[in-house]
Amino acid sequence: MAAAAPGALGAVQAGRARLLAACCARLGTGWRLSGSWAGRQVGPAAWTWGPAQRRGYSSEAKTEDELRVRHLEEENRGIVVLGINRAYGKNSLSKNLIKMLSKAVDALKSDKKVRTIIIRSEVPGIFCAANLPVPTIAAIDGLALGGGLELALACDIRVAASSAKMGLVETKLAIIPGGGGTQRLPRAIGMSLAKELIFSARVLDGQEAKAVGLISHVLEQNQEGDAAYRKALDLAREFLPQGPVAMRVAKLAINQGMEVDLVTGLAIEEACYAQTIPTKDRLEGLLAFKEKRPPRYKGE
After folding, report:
1. Which residues are catalytic?
2. Tens-binned pLDDT, residue by residue, of the chain (300 aa)
């Protein structure tokens, strides 16, 4: 047994190294591991929709723009709003919408000018939402049932109006959540409560969702019906001044670290932290602090 220990340790270390390499791959071309984790240069990872997320597409009966991408300007520069617009299908996932989302994500994840992405519905009362390297916020102002909630769960932060309704209701149809719900909901609110909600197909309002930790903020709905979107915009504005490289790397460290043991998670954090040291943004942050002025980060 004693003789086998070094080999086992080596296997564990090799596994961690592969995991860290995968993390750096998600950062994009040019990123390297530092120190004892150093290895070959890795390229960007591709973003795809898994087989489970291809279930239950609705038919494509219309040709209207199902996804609207808006790059906000002036004080909101760096914020992108993805507006889902399938009124006739209540924002259900059509093949065309999936194709448009995939194309938009491919473009946005490589755009260094993008700081935060808000995903919202442009159909009153309905929400239906993708995982990107920058912060993503799901603004739920209406219904987010089944696939709609699963897409919201893929976002980093969820905000909702108190009148919103959300739940994974697939068991009512004798199926199970097939777009990540059985995996992301337990990670968000805990295994026992997630099982209760999925087994019962229970629908929660905004206050109930906040109480169980499903959403971060709950707002009273306004007359325009966009209270959650307005809160999401406020949060996005809070994120804008921060270093964009640091934001991407922090998200990666948190996401990957939550999937592994603490020792490996700390190694991931160390590798991610090392990526921020040689950046121009770090030097700009130090200079701005010294000169007592707001930093001018460029994502470099």
Report:
1. 150, 170
2. 444 444 544 554 555 555 555 554 554 544 444 443 333 322 222 222 222 333 333 333 343 577 888 899 888 999 999 888 755 544 455 667 777 877 888 888 888 888 899 988 765 554 444 468 899 999 999 989 998 899 899 999 999 999 999 999 999 999 999 889 999 999 999 999 999 999 999 999 999 999 999 999 999 999 999 999 999 999 999 999 999 999 999 999 999 999 999 999 999 999 999 999 999 999 999 999 999 999 999 888
**Residue owning tokens 């490996």:** 264
Give the torsion sign (CA, 34, 26, 250, 289).
positive
Both tokens of 33, joined, read 């591991």
Q: Sign of torsion, CA 59 70 53 98? A: positive
CA dihedral (66, 48, 237, 259) positive or negative: positive
